[in-house]
Structure formats: C-alpha cells, structure tokens
Design brief:
This protein is α/β, with parallel strands linked by helices. It has a domain of 221 residues: Aldolase class I (TIM Barrel, Alpha-Beta Barrel), CATH 3.20.20. It contains ten helices and twelve strands. The strands form two sheets. Strands 1, 2, 3, 4, 5, 6, 7, 8, 9 and 12 form a ten-stranded parallel beta sheet that branches. A two-stranded antiparallel ribbon has the order 10-11. α8 links the parallel β7 and β8. It is globular and about 50 Å long.
Length: 326
C-alpha cells in the first residue's frame, strides 16, 4: 500500500504523548477514522501460531515459560516432525487462517536449523498459506536464506521500551533486536514486530515502545500487541493485571501511529472479555491469533472466536486478500 499523508516515520515523543493523553472517546474516534481510511473495518486477518520447537531457550525473558532459566514445567523438546507441522498447517487453512506462524525457542538458529526451517517454509507455502517464523536473532545471510525459501514474514518483538527492557531481559540487548529487524528488512521480508503490555511498565514505556515502532525506517507490516499471560515459575508470575481500557488505548495508539499495519490481538485473549475485544476491533485491531494455543499458553477456542466475530458483524479476511494489505 503506498504511503499517504497520515503515514509518517517522523513522530515525536511529544506528539505520541499528546495522543496518549486524549480523552478515551476522542482517541478511539481518531483511531477508528484512520482505520477506515486504510482497511475494511469489518475484516479480520486470521493467523495460527504453532510451536515447532518448544522449551529450553537460553534467553532469560522474565515473562517466558520456555526460558531454561525458569522452572515452569515446560520441558525442552525436539523440533516437530515436518509431517506434523504440515498437518497443523492444513488444519489451520481449513479453519480459516490465512497465515501460518512457526515458532522455535532459540536464542538464534544454527545453520542446520535454518535449513530445516527453509524446507518447512517451502512446504507450508505450497499449501497457499502466508508463512511467518520467529526463531530468535537472525544474521543477514540467515534472513536472506529464509526469504529465498519463500518466507513472507519474520516476527521479532521489541517487547517493551528500551528504558524498561533491562528489567525484563538481560541475555540480549535492545540493539540486538533492532539489528535483527534491520537484517529482516534488508532481506526483503515483511516485519512482524510489537510488544507485551503488563510487564510492570509505566505509561511512559508504552509510549516509547510505540514511538520506536512508528519511527523505524518502515513500519512493521504486522504489529502484535500481547497482554501478559502470567505463568507460575516466571519472575512476572505475580504481575498486576492490565486495565482493559489501558490496553484498548495501546491498540488505538498503534493504529494512529502505523495506519497501514495490521494490528494484531495476540497473547492474553483468554483473559479479555468479549466487550474488551470488541473495543479493540473498533480501535483498529484487525488481526488475531486463531487456534487453541499460542506456543505454550492457551488461546480462546476457535469456535468461540467465530461466534464473537459473527456477533460483531466481522468476518475473517479471505485467503486471496491476505497478502494485499499487510
């Protein structure tokens, strides 16, 4: 989608702060207006996420049950068999998903693992699905290898603001994440990048995270907004719950700042009421993870999601259109 006057990469922090302080109704009105300018307001892109390699990750992310640093009961497993991955992909396509996302709990993949994933990408892509992978940090050549295999999207979240980041992760730096995003862009892959709300951050951190995303050389094509799923055994197991209206505000800000990006409701939806999700869709969310699990955490039942969409008069974005607006 070509740039229009409201697609900017020069937002100032003061401008984002001003948006964040708007009255709730004014913020939602502005976000919904922007949303209608760039998207069908009643279509929702559906993605399915599968953990292809679970647990044993060397990173110490304070929220993650897959970290080897935490005792959460998640055991390190082997990479899923290719036939099972393809079965999951076919099931996702049959249930209405247009994008199949594959995750592996690695700090960064080894050459053999990249080659294995390249094979999965070719086979999943041959099913007619968009492909996405999240494998940790990538070098430039690794990103190019995945692109050459047909990968559409690469997910690598910033998680939170640069200021708050050291309170959450110590095993890789914020700059490491930004460099992976640059490698992904340089390879011509579409970027999927967002964050997590509920990590003990302040409003300032949410503003700064969104400002960072909105001032990247190119806006992420997809912006997943996660609500923390507090898991026993992680340092954030007792984190305070997120105020639902504060979460809706983050969705609205993301929509205003990145008008042509898909804004995705990601982890944490099992704790969201139907009314909260409806407000998120009005505020500009137009993508969701669809299926019973997200890596190792639960997700609403697929039939419940379809019932909710039907109640709201929303419909899944068709497969033929999935690549046209991302």
């Amino acid at each position: 989608m070509p740039d229009t006057p409201d697609i900017r990469h020069d937002w100032t922090l003061d401008e984002v702060w001003a948006l964040a302080r708007l009255p709730f109704n004014d913020l939602l009105y502005r976000a919904h207006t922007v949303h209608r300018r760039h998207f069908d307001p009643n279509a929702v892109q559906m993605s399915t996420l599968v953990s292809v390699k679970t647990g044993g990750c060397a990173e110490d992310c304070a929220y993650c049950p897959q970290s080897a640093h935490h005792e959460t009961g998640v055991q390190a497993g082997h990479m899923m068999d290719a036939a099972e991955v393809l079965d999951r992909a076919r099931a996702a396509r049959a249930s209405g998903a247009t994008r199949f996302c594959m995750g592996a709990a690695w700090r960064s993949p080894k050459p053999r693992q990249v080659e294995q994933f390249a094979g999965l990408i070719r086979e999943v892509g041959a099913l007619g699905l968009e492909t996405c992978a999240t494998l940790g940090m990538l070098t430039g050549p690794q990103a190019q290898q995945l692109k050459d295999a047909g990968l559409d999207y690469y997910n690598h979240n910033l998680d939170t603001s640069e200021r708050h980041y050291p309170q959450i992760i110590s095993t890789r730096s914020y700059q490491d994440r930004l460099e992976t995003l640059q490698n992904v862009r340089n390879a011509g892959l579409k970027v999927c990048c967002g964050g997590i709300i509920g990590l003990g951050e302040e409003l300032r951190d949410r503003v700064e995270l969104l400002h960072t995303l909105a001032t990247l050389p190119a806006h992420p094509d997809s912006v997943p907004v996660n609500q923390l799923v507090a898991v026993e055994g992680t340092p954030l197991a007792d984190a305070a719950p997120v105020d639902p209206l504060d979460f809706v505000r983050v969705i609205a800000l993301a929509r205003i700042l990145m008008p042509a990006s898909h804004v995705r409701l990601s982890a944490g939806r099992t704790a969201m009421s139907d009314e909260m999700q409806a407000l998120c869709f009005f505020a500009g969310a137009n993508s969701m993870f669809y299926g019973e699990r997200l890596l190792t955490t639960p997700n609403p039942q697929a039939d419940r999601d379809l019932v909710l969409l039907d109640r709201l008069g929303l419909r899944p974005e068709p497969l033929v259109a999935a690549g046209q607006q991302a």
